[in-house]
């Protein structure tokens, strides 16, 4: 029996429970009420503290409440998030700024008595929400500064506290993640949270999956290629569907590769409100009739509030008004008058009932030709495939999801992730580590995939 270090690593990993990391954000505050529904969650990341005001951050949900809900979980705080780049960019300009940010993060951790911090800088080096206002050419110094920021944070918080990073899924956004910077980044962090979703976003021009099995696999391989340790990686899952208005669908027999209406202003970079995310919350998943609701007296509306607007539009966020933001971008057609966009809520009911499973790419989609909307999302069945074909295959450390309250209709995605984590490595049809798989580029990842040892319980030999 030939026994290699690679095979030994697979066996050792099989004895370790994989991680289940989930973000808990303030915009979707519903949490599972029972331990059974919380499943295997063992890390909760509170989102978000502002990067330029970190030291004084106090979460809206008290940390003591989260510890009561998740008594066996590590509680962390995320700093940054989409659109919050200025604090990071300013800090990265000088060593003094880096040291202050690190010290402020330590203060935040100490004040809130949490177990660590997640750095969600989207993205060092450019391509963030402000990329039209501040071009990437003005952010080149951030690439070299990013590892220094992480090293300073690690030194400030010490080895006993957790440090994770949320990293981009699209290769074009991996500006600060290269063969040169990777080896300087990985030693500072405990976890690498792979945002293997939003792989189609408003900067794209044609319909595609936003979080398919194939797409997620490419994300993992891109990070393995620059030396990211698999054991530190958590594969990201999205608890929402995405929709895009299509420019025309009548001439196309396929739902994929169809041109979309311009979803981002080419000058300002702002959202044109022709695309969006649709979370798996009760208000989005359950069919409702506005006839059962009364008129609003406080300006709130929609299925979550139980009221409709006497005049004007009911925005996706649940407020009455007449602005473009109220009347577009997922406006609730049944709860007001004047919506200018397609009926997103009604279209989703069609998509959920008639979605098509792409068994090649591994993603769910639907093209609503009547309303001119394309939908793309993940399902429990494809979550299983991601564990079989990615998490177990590449020996990843666990799973990450955005976000907790967005799965509150039935908690089915959390349940499926927990089931897969509890099954462990090497269980189930098609699962396990195929150390001789040609699809696994061991050379890029620093492994010798030609040295295939045969050990009982390890497949592929």
Automatic annotation (TrEMBL):
**UniProt xrefs under CDD domains:** ChtBD1_1
Q: Which residues form a coiled coil?
A: none
SUPFAM superfamilies documented for this protein: (Trans)glycosidases
Q: What class of enzyme is it?
A: hydrolase
Q: Name one GO molecular function term.
A: endochitinase activity
Q: Catalysed reaction per UniProt?
A: Random endo-hydrolysis of N-acetyl-beta-D-glucosaminide (1->4)-beta-linkages in chitin and chitodextrins
Disulfide bond listed as a keyword: yes
Keywords in UniProt for this one? Carbohydrate metabolism, Chitin degradation, Chitin-binding, Disulfide bond, Glycosidase, Hydrolase, Polysaccharide degradation, Signal
Kindly indicate whether the keyword S-adenosyl-L-methionine belongs to this entry: no
SMART domains in the record, alphabetically?
A: Glyco_18
A Gene Ontology biological process term: chitin catabolic process
Protein name according to UniProt: chitinase
Species:
Bimuria novae-zelandiae CBS 107.79
